[in-house]
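Entry 14. Structure prediction run on the chain below.
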Amino acid sequence: MKDAELIGVQKTLSPVLRAKALDNRLPDPILGDPYAEQAMRRLDPDYDKRRFGSSQMGLAAVVRAKAHDDWARRFLADHPNAVVLHLGCGLDARVYRIDPPATVDWYDLDYPSVIDLRQHFLPPREHYTLIGSSVTDLTWLERIPRDRPVLMIAEGLVPYLTESAVRQLLTSVVDAFLSGQIQIDTVPVWVWRTSKWDPTLRRYGTRFHCGFNDPAALADWHPRLEYLDEAPMYDSPVLMAKAPANIRRMHRLLTLLPGMKHSTRIVRFRFS
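Output returned:
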């Protein structure tokens, strides 16, 4: 299957995967994911040969992935028998980067066409299950064991859902499990409302469908849900330490613009 056979939001996996692939070529990578480079080359053999093909402008997305990885490692260190729900997984190799113990059951979920790509591009492993489904068709939850703590990771997913779908997803996961951690990233209302003019999203024929000025307030959706904290993205110390000089300068300037510093927010919740 080629990238051209993906539609709409499914095609946004390409620029994120490309950013991770290019990061792996840095002398001191932020994420250091060889699977991303291998998968990107198979998805688009000439991805780095076009104009700006080797630009590191997408490194903020790599920082986002690392933040989710770091949180996940900490949770699994404390809960080595957990169930992991990696929703809207795309071609991300998180399960291979984190390499959880055999006591963890890991589920990667995305559209069937994306899961088909994963089966072609990424190797199988034990205690690892692929689910081809829309995230909003919550019948997939029936396939997940519920007798252990859960870690739900939704990287780069929430803005593409409606607010009602996000609310149903979060509350359904909290209702289904006794305890767990939920990791998501969101955009503010102004980014959501202007997304129809975003050149990257227009290129892929999609747009955002929700935004939250205060993502911590999502904890009010369920009495057992508690906001924990937020990870930096555009002004992340690791970005400023490892990105090429031109990328560091660009992000320093961007974070001076009103609203840009928090135009994406990486947030974490827990429930028990």
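The first helix runs from residue 13 to 23.
Filed with the rest of this week's runs.
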